[in-house]
Design brief:
There is one protein chain. With 457 residues, this protein is an alpha/beta fold. It has 2 domains: 244 residues, DD-peptidase/beta-lactamase superfamily (Beta-lactamase, 3-Layer(aba) Sandwich); 206 residues, D-Ala-D-Ala carboxypeptidase C, peptidase S13 (D-tyrosyl-trna(Tyr) Deacylase, Chain: A). Helices cover 27% and strands 25% of the residues. Helix 3 runs antiparallel to helix 6 and helix 4 packs across helix 5.
């Protein structure tokens, strides 16, 4: 009864709230950010109403803090122990380790099918008794039904722009490592199909490092497996690495299959293609992902967009997954949970969007409800710890709030946000939401950090 009373009181609109401190206002003024372009909530988790509210009902772009909604919805709709499967089928006949037929990999949206786990899948396939495949590799992507979306920004090859797929290996990205030596820059890239040709046209110079990533231009040709790199790189940068979006998820899945299957002592005579698994195909086995609780840890600690988008799509109603179904199911769940967010706009559930919106008050309500729910430990554990790990690792070191707050951050052009929990020295846990939507938003970090420290005092 006490739990429901707290929730009921929480959902009432508070009658008044305190203003911001001079320190926070001064930090906003120094950053040229008007208070009207901020949305701020401070809420003691055991109180019926927030103590500070600034523009609580305005719809803001939350950037990556939208991952909090996706994570908490998934914990409720799927459960923390939920796992995704990848099914392996074959047609034709299998005799003495030789498959005279096609092998099918049918994906259901595993967000964390890394190279290591993909190799384990193929190792399990090899142990199942298949060694030689006299047929094709067929990749079944039909579970995710996605329409093409407009290009998000001018960097389509950046890993955060990778599109989710029902069968997606290693987040459909490759790590590119740049190492300067005496006269040039060495390029290493993995994972990539074994027959990839790398054309390195990077010029080494003696400038200061600066914005090194913007100076490197990449082009990946999925059909010919060619990677080209151009630009200038300063020796002063030392070794750096970045993730590259490889575009078509099936290309990497097929290329790595051939590479890893050969390493397992297997052979395949045919080519690869994308098609549906026939109803007559026989199931070899299903390979399971890590549980959802572990998945959201990686999503929120490191703000992994493609994992968040995959989880969001998985909130759809079967037999397939699409954005409209996932969005409807999340909104219906919110209403059933007495969380009615009429301003809520969901595009992909990851916050990598110019369209997504939620009010600071409703984000705080979500976190309030989560705090009083059985899934609070899983959600809080997934959030970056101030000054210690994830996207908050370098912020607020050597302060009282270091190690005492779990905060999710978000950043887009014109957007800087944070939301989470502060475990104050007085023994109370406070919900904190600080949204900035302003052309000078990136200068708002000091104001956000100042507020976090004040909550802990």
């Amino acid at each position: 009864m006490r739990y429901w009373l707290i929730l009921f009181l929480a959902f009432l609109s508070p009658s008044h709230a305190a203003p911001l401190s001079h320190a926070v206002l001064n930090a906003l003024n120094a950053a040229h950010i008007p208070e009207q372009n901020t949305g701020i909530i401070i809420w003691d988790s055991m109180s019926p109403a927030p103590s500070i509210m600034i523009n609580p009902n305005r719809a803001f772009n939350p950037a990556s803090t939208m991952k909090l909604l996706t994570s908490y919805a998934a914990l409720n709709l799927l459960g923390p122990a939920y796992t995704w499967k990848t099914d392996i089928y074959y047609d034709g006949n299998l005799h003495d380790g030789t498959l005279n037929g096609n092998l099918y990999l049918k994906g259901f949206g595993d967000p964390d099918l890394t190279v290591e786990r993909y190799w384990m899948l193929l190792h399990q396939l090899r142990l199942s008794g298949i060694q030689h495949i006299n047929g094709d590799l067929v990749i079944d992507q039909r579970y995710f039904q996605l329409s093409p979306r407009p290009q998000f920004d001018d960097h389509p090859n950046r890993a955060y722009n990778a599109e989710p797929a029902a069968l997606m290996v290693n987040f459909n990205s490759s790590e590119i490592k740049l190492t300067p030596n005496t006269t040039n820059v060495t390029v290493q890239a993995e994972p990539l199909p074994s027959d990839t040709h790398i054309f390195n046209h990077i010029t080494l110079n003696n400038e200061t490092c600066g914005e090194w990533r913007d100076a490197i231009h990449t082009e990946w040709q999925a059909d010919t497996h060619q990677l080209s790199l151009n630009g200038n790189y300063a020796r002063d940068c030392g070794e750096k690495s970045f993730a590259l979006n490889l575009g078509n998820a099936s290309t990497l899945a097929a290329g790595l299959f051939q590479q890893l299957w050969q390493a397992e002592g297997g052979t395949i005579t045919g080519t690869w293609r994308v098609a549906n698994t026939p109803d007559s195909a026989q199931l070899v086995f299903s390979y399971s992902s890590p549980p959802l609780a572990q998945i959201i840890y990686d999503i929120n600690k490191y703000s992994n967009n493609i994992m968040a988008r995959s989880v969001f799509l998985s909130l759809s109603s079967p037999p397939s997954a699409n954005i409209a179904s996932a969005s409807d199911n999340v909104k219906n769940w919110l209403k059933l949970s007495q969380l009615d967010f009429p301003e809520l706009i969901l595009e992909n559930g990851a916050g990598l969007s110019r369209l997504e919106r939620i009010s600071p008050y409703h984000m705080a309500q979500l976190l309030y409800a989560a705090y009083h729910s059985p899934y609070y430990p899983e959600l809080a554990n997934s959030l970056p710890i101030v000054a210690m790990d994830g996207t908050m690792k370098k912020r607020l070191k050597d302060t009282l709030v270091a190690g005492r707050a779990h905060i999710k951050t978000g950043t887009l052009d014109g957007v800087k946000t944070m939301a989470g929990y502060v475990h104050a020295t007085n023994g109370h846990t406070y919900i904190v939401v600080f949204f900035i939507n302003d052309e000078h938003a990136q200068a708002g970090g000091l104001a956000q950090d100042t507020l976090l420290q004040e909550v802990d005092n």
